[in-house]
Each structure stands twice: as structure tokens, then as C-alpha cells.
Write a structure and sequence with these properties.
The chain is α+β, with helices and mostly antiparallel strands and 240 residues long. The chain has helices at 48-60, 68-90, 135-141, 147-150, 189-192, 197-206, 210-223; strands spanning 6-15, 25-28, 35-41, 96-104, 107-113, 117-122, 125-128, 172-177, 183-187, 230-239. The longest helix is centred in the N-terminal third of the chain and has 23 residues, at 68-90.
């Protein structure tokens, strides 16, 4: 190891929220610091928790050997096939969103499907790295509505991609060189529908430790009413 190599550590929580009877989110926390996942089962369609667990369990089964981005893409495709087959067998709509971070050699390989989000906290600035697969995001991209109008739009919960709903899925990927003191936030929309980005930034500014930061973000969502399940993972990069 050289002094320029980074160590990754993190923490996360998932909470049923203030309204739902069942938590259909699932998270993967990796004590080695390498792989982190948030999956949000599609509530209201039945068996969303099953789909979310299949996403997490499938990614937990990743094996070293291939390039991380290729490995993630292949495994996401396999998981999608398995969830879709279950949906066909049960005759109900089953699906989940996905955000994942695979950290290796000072690089973060990021993947997402749906409207769960990935953020980067760097140098006192919060930046959203993922791009929502949602109806309101398409309206924002087309200039039909503003990002502010999207917050309360009638279609704000309509997603345009999800794991398992179709026979194949197109995940999006970003590879990010990491720096010391960077933090990555993975979260379900149960956080972002309740806690605006400026409050997320203030929370990360106030809490350097991933465990206290993740707990504070979940608490902020609960204090705001948390009508949905809330899942948060915060990952920190530090020098060895």
C-alpha cells in the first residue's frame, strides 16, 4: 500500500418510515468497504420487498475477476431476468430500483436503475451523479417543467425503468476517480422526496462520520413525515 491509496468505509440504515406498514427497501453494507447497494421495491405492486432482496442478494454474490463495470452490468442483467421470471410466474408486477457503488483502486464504479439516487460530497459541495429514470425527470429534461415544479408534480412517483419489470433492463453507469475526504451517498427516494438537496448538503457538512451522517439523514426524513420507506448509505474515502 502507498500513502496515496484510499480506504473506504461506510454505514447505512433502512427504515419503514412513518406511514407504510412494511419496509420494501433493502440495503447491502460491506465491511470490506468495496460494495454498497440500495434497492427500493416497487410499493403498491405486491412483493416489492422480494424484488429488493433479490437485487441485494444478487449483487452480494459478485465474484472478483472481471472489470468491475462489466461485472456489474452482467450481474444486473441476470438479476433482472430472475425478477422478471418471478413476475411472470406470480402474475403480478414486481420490481425494484437500484443504486450501487463498487469501490476498487481509488475508483468508484456506480450503477443505477430507477429514481433512487447517488450523490457525491466533495470539497463542501453536493453533486447528484445519477440521473433519475422517472417521468418528471423526462419533463425537466424536455424543459416542460422546472426542477422546483418536479418536487410536487402529480407524476413524481412514476419511474420509467425498474429491475424486473421488462425482460431486459438498461442500467446507467459512471466511473468516478475518488479523492481523500470524498463521500458518496446512496439513497432511496424516501429520502429525497422529504429532504431537499440543500438540507442533505448541510447534514453532510455537519456530520463527517458516515454512521452519524446516515442516521441524521434518516432522522430528517422521519421528521418531515416519511410517507415512504427511507434508506441511506454514506461511504467515506480516507487516506491509508
Amino acid at each position: 500500500m502507498t500513502s496515496s491509496e484510499l480506504r473506504f468505509s461506510g454505514a447505512g440504515y433502512t427504515h419503514v418510515g412513518q406511514v407504510r406498514a412494511r419496509n420494501e427497501d433493502a440495503i447491502l453494507l460491506d465491511p470490506t468497504g468495496q460494495l454498497w447497494v440500495v434497492a427500493d421495491g416497487m410499493g403498491g405492486h405486491g412483493h416489492g420487498d422480494v424484488a429488493a432482496e433479490m437485487v441485494v442478494d444478487g449483487l452480494a454474490a459478485l465474484e472478483d475477476g472481471a472489470e468491475p463495470d462489466v461485472m456489474l452490468a452482467d450481474q444486473i442483467a441476470r438479476i433482472n431476468t430472475d425478477i422478471h421470471a418471478m413476475m411472470i410466474r406470480r402474475g403480478v408486477t414486481i420490481g425494484a430500483t437500484l443504486v450501487a457503488a463498487y469501490l476498487q483502486d481509488n475508483l468508484s464504479y456506480l450503477a443505477w436503475v430507477g429514481d433512487s439516487r447517488i450523490y457525491l460530497w466533495r470539497g463542501g459541495t453536493l453533486r447528484q451523479l445519477s440521473h433519475d429514470h422517472s417521468r418528471v425527470q423526462e419533463l425537466v429534461d424536455d424543459g416542460v417543467i422546472t426542477p422546483q415544479e418536479a418536487q410536487n408534480h402529480v407524476d413524481r412517483n412514476v419511474i420509467t425503468r425498474a429491475m424486473g419489470v421488462e425482460p431486459t433492463v438498461v442500467a446507467d453507469f459512471v466511473t468516478l476517480p475518488m479523492r481523500a475526504d470524498d463521500r458518496i451517498l446512496l439513497c432511496s427516494d424516501g429520502l429525497t422526496t422529504c429532504v431537499p438537496d440543500y438540507l442533505i448538503a448541510q447534514t453532510l457538512q455537519s456530520h463527517e462520520d458516515p454512521k452519524t451522517a446516515a442516521a441524521a439523514l434518516v432522522r430528517a426524513a422521519l421528521d418531515a413525515g416519511a410517507p415512504d420507506n427511507v434508506s441511506v448509505i454514506v461511504i467515506a474515502a480516507t487516506e491509508q
